[in-house]
Structure prediction request, 861 residues.
Amino acid sequence: MTVTDTVTETPTTAGVLAALDAESFPRGILDEGSKREIRRATLTAVCVPGYQVPFGSREMPVARGWGSGGLQLTLGLLGGHDTVKVIDQGDDDGVNATNLRRLIVDSEHCAQTQDTRDCSVVQSRHRIPEEPLIDDQVLVLQVPVAEPLRGVQKSVSECARMHAEADYSMIWVSLYEDLVRNGMITKTTGYPVLVNGRYVMVTTPIPRWDVPRLNNAASLTLFGAGREKRIFAVPPYTRVEPLTFDDVPFEVEGDTAQRCARCGSSDTFLVEAPGGRTACSDIEWCTRTLDGDVDTRNHAERSPLRFLPDPARRVRAATAVKRRGPAELEARPVPAHADGWTLAVRGVGKVHGPGGADAVPGTGPGTGTAISPRTGAVVAAWDVGFDVAPGEALGLIGESGSGKSTVLRCLVGEETATAGSMFLTTVGGGDTDVFGLDAAERRALRVDTVGLVHQNPADGLTMKVSAGGNIAERLTAAGWRNYHEIRDRAAYLLEKVEVPLERMDDPVHTFSGGMRQRVQIAKALATDPRVLLLDEPTTGLDASVAAGVLDLLRKLLAERDTAAVVVSHDFAVIEALTDRCLVMNVGRVVESGLTDQLFQDPHHPYTQRLVAAARR
Amino acid sequence: MISPILSVRALRKTFTLHTIDGRTVTSLHGVDLDVAEGEHVALAGPSGAGKSSLLRCVHRSYLPDGGTVTLRTDDGPVELTSLPDREMARLRGRELGYVSQFLSAPPRTGPMDVVAAAGRRRGMSRSDARDAAADSLRRLALDEALWDVDCSVLSGGERQRVNIAAGTVNPPRLLLLDEPVSALDPANRERALELIASLSAQGVAVLAVFHDLDAMRRLASRVIRFSEGRIAQQGSAFDVLGAAA
Prediction:
């Protein structure tokens, strides 16, 4: 056999690439892997309406904030048979809309249109098209800010926690504050809605006008936030309810006399046009109306005209709902256990560091140290037990570092106790160990069963929110949804704590220290908790202001059946507020008894020193 | 025989002073004592004999080391030395009053509020308590202009009258008096003693410490003389104190 006579032609590099190109998917902005990521997130978003699904947001050839989230959704969604429409501020011909449309069509080789009736996918900023969308149409919205809680909570994980627990009281507070400041809701875009009765979602970027049009819409609506890397959705025929107080009707922008200066429509969302006139925001609709190419009846039926501002309706809503009296809560009986207590604490201990209970031997008043000789752990408190009856105030006294605040923090749930148990008559009839509940249940307890007054008002108040709003926070968390009822209750409480009512709507950071503490007390009492925990309530205040707050607390405790625990290093505070008290030293209770007996006849050496020091 | 309102048996009280090298001071060495309904028992003896200690042990401001203190209530006899703190705190307001030399009013409250609050603790309605308080303050001739003034600005005598009024309004079953009239001028002292005397007629059991013998002679149905933490002698005022000089 001789050397082969056929010589194969050596393939050129260009030839190989051309052959590969011919077999591959058409090149677009996004590769197939990225599209899959978007589709996965989109499917999850459709399954859990209103829930923000995180996704691997890509860099887009548009600046972030110019619709990169919406663009990714559209690109991930489109196939060759789709027809896309892009609008910006209701206009198909704006620079942004034109550029995005060209980008999409070039990338995906799909058809484009300006007629909503012909398209399968609408990408939009600011508006839902006036033409009612039908089954199988998809609306993609470019979202600037996806997180409804972002304004009130910086931490992403905390926001996630609040969504998980449906803890939306801060959103209600922002509505409350808007009403207080402006007399009506002024929030135009980003109005919060409850989707399918579960998740609160923001409707950025659409105006309030379009919010009712999302409710039970036939089309699928997708929200894409490129910067925040979130996708969320409202599937077809899903309930979308704007958050409103029972007695403050939801309203859209505009008024009953509104009319487009160009086409004469009175049932569309109007924006200001040059010359002080108003015109349709949706230019396609406006033009087709002039051409007579619209189904005006169908459109009018779906327009949110019944939500147009109507002073008479506001008054009706405010008076129609029967309001609770502001003091009605106080009639609530405080249940007591068969043994007489409302709150019982048994053997509570807290060890910081290794060893747990094994670290305890060798610490305590006997050795004078809280540091475990065996493990080096700090035994902050050990074997602390007491119970408190309705209408009774128990004191916890001891010098700094004696463990009294640790015990209080364990009771509130700010710290996890190493040992012991806590019982409340309102939880499982007093047979359920509260320490065994999960974090969400513990937090729920703090809404209506356990009130806490911190030493520092900044820990218990939201400083930029008004005094009334701070009280509203606790009330809305407890399910109050009547604006006037909340106002009444807040005013009633502020009067109780002697904060002048004309300061009710001022932000708390404008208040003095004593006033802040009073507001904090009012907030702690908002839902009339059965148990009130006071942590050094007067310590940060100067003598005269502290005296005023002390008088107030004494009065408040005397007139209600709350079980109170007062933590203080100050004998005067304990003497003024409590009948019984425990003395703590190096993490242990060294003595307990009637407050006046401990003061006049202290037994333990430590108590005697404490009393001697107080008398000096 | 009707059981007494107050019955003290073998009551002992010793203080351990940890701040002063742990020394011990005994103020009561086993005291037995009964006070019947409507009876006024006066305690006599020199300073440091244990009179005030006894009152405070009954009131539980001091925690006795041994013995029993039994109070007859509507719910039967209650032993006070072993009573849980919470029960004791409740019982104090209702069943036993304590009037000391010094007014222990909450800061920044006025005489009217102090006295009315005492009445309310003993089960009166808000309006009844205010009426009774006004009546009581008037009997002690406290100027009406002072009724809503902060107690801390009152004179010693005025404060003491507020204290007496608070202790005696809607009187409790047992009243402990620790030198209640020591700071009063003669006219006011007279009014206060009259008020105290009227309590016995209402059936209140009174256990009192007076420093002046006149008051004891006038009020006491029985006088007990203390000496070094023990009962030295008891009997009628005449037997124990002798005739007025």
Notes: The mean pLDDT of chain B is 88. The longest helix of chain B spans residues 186-201.
